[in-house]
Amino acid sequence: MATASREDRDRRRLGLTLVALLLVALNLRPALTSVSPVLQRIGESLALSPAMLGLLTTLPVLCLGLAAPVAPRAARRLGAERAVLAALLVLALALLVRPYTGTPGLFAGTALAGGCIGVLGVLLPGLVKRDFPERVSAMTGLYTMTLCLGAATAAGATEPLRLILGEAWRGALALWLIPALAAAVIWGLQPRAPAAATRHAGPRTRLMRDSLAWQVTLFMGSQSALAYSVFGWLPTILADRGLAPVTAGLALSCSILVQLISALAAPALGARMRDQRAVSAGVMALVMIGVAGCIFAPLASVWLWIAILGLGQGGSFAMGLTLIAVRARDADTAADLSAMAQGVGYMLAAAGPLLVGLLHEAFGGWRAVGVALCLIAAASMILGLGAGRRAWVGGTDAA
């Protein structure tokens, strides 16, 4: 009876942990994707130049990378659970501050929100590895699917919220602190997990000198650069090609929604295979096909390419997170690899939209941009073949 009772408690604890993890994942993109629908109104309200608006969209992605190394240190000092709770509370504060404190507060709040999301994004793969060691791929798929849902919801709901509230844009942005507070409450209610025994003694893996760790990192970085380039520029590209601006924005929302399918399916498929090479390279091939179709194919077929692009990008981000978890021996190594992969990865991702803008300005069109994005996708396919092989960081083949 005591054993059955203990098992029931463990199941309830894991169930609450699952709900809390998914609520945290839901908050990892709204702070970013809620800005673009009202970007023009922000610029008009605060008299911001196009360059300043470009910085506003790039800043949170840059801060995702800059804050990533902070996460493992915070976890060691506070514990992973307290570090997540603190990041959620600061995220909610940043979302409250940024609409109502003028231009300095807008930029400071946006940077702080990006940093909090960077910390959360690094900590979650290690917690998944710790609490769900036998279901890493399935949990990563659910986590990524929820993240995409949060991104799509914020992108699609911010402008309607602005119209309902009858404000210029401030209330619509501030409302996204509510999901962050809800996640903080649920996260704080979960019982603390028992401490896990250390599986491997000896010195910590020097990830910066590990070739497999770099392959995982560069795969994460290259697919993130493509993702943020598409997110930042796809509506403009399609509008320049002849779609109505509203339709072009809808195309981006549809692409994000399609990601829900592959975000869940790609890790599940990878878990059924001996390694993740085929899935990692395959989803990047879909991204390449989708990008090329959106830029080069006849406009009448654009919805086909939008769907393919969404499938590729949902799967590529999910596989990036999955590779962090499955290439690490334990939760501590997963947290360190997550910090490296997402720290460097989001620094690269911040350069992606900037590169698109520079190429467009230099060549006066989108063909050079299309070629560059396809080359990045091809490089990411090669990196996926390396990062997806069955091995652990540190040079040891997995069992």
From TrEMBL:
<dbReference type="GO" id="GO:0022857">
    <property type="term" value="F:transmembrane transporter activity"/>
</dbReference>
<feature type="transmembrane region" description="Helical">
    <location>
        <begin position="243"/>
        <end position="266"/>
    </location>
</feature>
<keyword id="KW-1133">Transmembrane helix</keyword>
<feature type="transmembrane region" description="Helical">
    <location>
        <begin position="305"/>
        <end position="326"/>
    </location>
</feature>
<feature type="transmembrane region" description="Helical">
    <location>
        <begin position="49"/>
        <end position="71"/>
    </location>
</feature>
<feature type="transmembrane region" description="Helical">
    <location>
        <begin position="211"/>
        <end position="231"/>
    </location>
</feature>
<keyword id="KW-0812">Transmembrane</keyword>
<feature type="transmembrane region" description="Helical">
    <location>
        <begin position="278"/>
        <end position="299"/>
    </location>
</feature>
<feature type="transmembrane region" description="Helical">
    <location>
        <begin position="140"/>
        <end position="157"/>
    </location>
</feature>
<feature type="transmembrane region" description="Helical">
    <location>
        <begin position="365"/>
        <end position="385"/>
    </location>
</feature>
<feature type="transmembrane region" description="Helical">
    <location>
        <begin position="169"/>
        <end position="190"/>
    </location>
</feature>
<keyword id="KW-0472">Membrane</keyword>
<feature type="transmembrane region" description="Helical">
    <location>
        <begin position="83"/>
        <end position="100"/>
    </location>
</feature>
<dbReference type="InterPro" id="IPR011701">
    <property type="entry name" value="MFS"/>
</dbReference>
<feature type="transmembrane region" description="Helical">
    <location>
        <begin position="106"/>
        <end position="128"/>
    </location>
</feature>
<dbReference type="InterPro" id="IPR052524">
    <property type="entry name" value="MFS_Cyanate_Porter"/>
</dbReference>
<dbReference type="InterPro" id="IPR036259">
    <property type="entry name" value="MFS_trans_sf"/>
</dbReference>
<protein>
    <submittedName>
        <fullName>MFS transporter</fullName>
    </submittedName>
</protein>
<dbReference type="Pfam" id="PF07690">
    <property type="entry name" value="MFS_1"/>
</dbReference>
<feature type="transmembrane region" description="Helical">
    <location>
        <begin position="338"/>
        <end position="359"/>
    </location>
</feature>
